[in-house]
Amino acid sequence: MQSSNVVKDPHTSLPNQWLIKSCEEYNDEVKYCRSLRGKLTHRYIHGYKEDCSPKIEAMHNCVYWTQRGDIDNLKELISYEEQRLLRRKHASMMNNVWEYRTEPPSDWNSPLPEWAVKRAKEIGEYEVKDKDETSQVKKIMQTYCTIS
User: Fold this and answer.
1) Where along the chain do its domains lie?
2) What is the distance between the alpha carbons of residues 135 and 123, in angstroms, rounded to a whole number?
């Protein structure tokens, strides 16, 4: 007998479900958090040992959601990702080094300098528009790699 929080369709969509990563990525985060390099890096940057239990719980929630289709695990995983996103946004907004723009610079669409055009042509990534405004963008040079 299934409980009410188990859904047969694992593709059930909830708000902010797009935040969820694959279970392999959560597993990689746990492995890095538990590794010596991860511990030393976190200690060096933040000055204290990182608690890996939230990452472990997120990994378990991901596995339970994908294997069992448990909605409660999906909701917990979405909540974890929302909190992580908020922490990241908060840290970047509290940064007083950069001045945030309200509109793009006035010259954002100006032509490239001559040195940049030359370099782009050399590596084959420069695109030129035809004189006719409605035509498609053409590539000057294309490179193909073949393995034989």
Assistant:
1) 17-93
2) 24
